[in-house]
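Deliverable D4.2, example record:
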Amino acid sequence: MTIRIIDVIPAGDSSETAQDSEPSIAVDPADPTQIIAGSFSTSTSFFLTLDGGTTWSHYDDLSTQDKSLAWKTDGSGFLTETMTLNSDLATYAGTVSSSGFGTAINTYAPANPDDLDQPWIRTGPFNHVYVAYNNLNNYPAGNTASVNVSTDGGATYTTTVIDRIGGAEGQDAPAVRLDVSGSRSYAIFTRWNTLVEDDANGARYGSQVVVVRSDDGGADGFTALGSGGDGTVVANTTSVFANTSDTPLTLGRERIAGGDSAIAIDPNNADHVVVAYLDAPGANGSGLMQLVVAESTDGGVNWTTKYTTDSATRSAQPGLAILDNGTIGLLYDNYDPTTNKLSQHLLKTSDDFASTTDTVLATEKNAAAPFDFHPYLGDFFDLHAVGNTFYGTFSASNDDDGTNASFLNLSLDRDFTGTPGTSNFQLTNGVGGSVSFSIDPFLFIDDGSANPCYCRGTLVMTEQGEVPVERLRIGDRVMTGSREARPIKWIGRRSYSGRFALGQTQILPICITAGALDDGVPRRDLWISPNHAMHLEGVLIEAKDLVNGVSIYQAETVDQIEYFHIDLDSHDLIIAEGAWSESFINDDNRGLFHNAYEYRALYPDMQGMPAQYCAPRLDSGIEVERARRKIARLAGLHAPAEAPSIGALRGCIDMIYPHRLGGWAQNVEQPDAPVCLDILAGGQSIGQVVANRYRADLEHAGIGTGDHGFEFVLPAGLVVTAEVLTVRRTFDGVALELSGPLKRKLHRGLDVA
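Output generated by the structure prediction step:
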């Protein structure tokens, strides 16, 4: 899977133009397709997806200021911690089946008036909830960094001031962050000790970055680290507070308001923890502002600097997370004063920063959207890890015309016309009216997939016959699914030692044994990377989704892996060992090949283009199940028994517009269960949608609670007519018919749109 970037504004909110900055997300650990997102605006809006980001609903609005989100570790629901308009802290609880948060389950108001700032919520096992925040009620004593701990799901809290020393400047920096792994938790804060200067550029402070730790779910008051339990100083740094714009201490329009620290615990080793913090050394006005990543492998006792962002540009708003496979991710915001552009990045390392890959998620002109208030994009961004997938969020201009803003692989639920990334892109209000561009929150999902590749020795069909993949050269012509011989533009190469690959399922090769796919297909055992897709049942299916342990299996150990991939002018099918499989497609992963420099030298002026697959790429659905059943039968395995009927389907397609379609669907025997639907055009899959939108007309007609409607935004540039459209239930392929009025219009030769 490529990195997916998704504008979270729902189709139903398409007319909104708010400055939706400072986003947060929470991901259901039991079902990561369920995600709650929130933004900072004139009121705090929350958005919910139940299908991995394809469609969104407006979950609730709360009258708050700052907020953050966390999903309960048992998957039963989610929490948001908000800073109220009175600067108290309020905890709200929600579930995917509720219509909103309702009333707060706890309001923490230790003083009147209160001055509590930047709440940061995380959850742990046994109904534990942790809220880090800056308690400015303690000003000017200096020790304001605090954590509240709940053992009853957020209903009640115990308060701990984690800065037990305090700095001379009256308070700690606003950001207090924490992470949780089992009963262990770490928190990070920045202690302001001395004022460097405070002028029109903003303020800088000589500071200490401090980490504290709890080993028993917070009961020890975070005193498990350092002399007297006061924590460990990670580093001395020059901290920034600049509540302004366009100065040497800001990221262009984005202020730096002390939200620039992050922390993450290795899910496999609670002694391994990584932090990120801001450092702005140098002379006043120099514009030097970097993020520093430091690491501890002994539970926070000792720290080593591992990475620092480029000094030629300014970076802030870090988010950190660590995958189950050990990959570390750093999300950050960047400003280049030379180009006057903002950009959002995901930097990853799988070898403890010996090497890194830095992916630009989005780039925008500094003034690409109206500026209504601080923060422009947000004092912080948010990054999470679930298994081996990163889930992150940032805010940016939604003016994706390729000039004012551009995104890597963007999709939108809100209405638009034209093609994202091109000059004809325009937001609309659902009835064709133009909508002004603004700041939106964006979700990105990166499952860490490796590049799809062939192993050494694989025979590839060329116009001269079969040739081992390692002997192919640029310019050789290979036979393709487009029924012509096409020249090779570039060949990517990468290799790994067996020791490095051990246990890394995203790297270890998969063997498709001879005859596993069909009679004599492949002709010999075909070894490919896990994410390499085969063309079966008219769709692309990655090898990892075909593994059955018998005729298709993954190697557990190897001495050495060499991967090769064939790049054509566009994505296509080629023949490897007599089986149809894919060529290389660049979805911003070319840099992972060890000879990527070669491509840049050959094609220095080549502009990146959005990834366009030659066929639908699926990991579930009817076509995938058909392929799996056939493979199981050929292997002599007992294919899964045909599932019993899940109930008759009723519903229809009752609207087809130029850029969207809709209707309703209900399972007669399970009327309250949402129905998942496949959308096809001309027999090719173009997406999925869940029929769970509320429609008043359905409720008035006595069709359940009315929560059975669906709407689907067509991919940019695709025009679908009723004659080629199919909407079918994912489970069994039962198709919906057109509504009576649409059928009559079609019969009379009228345009159903």
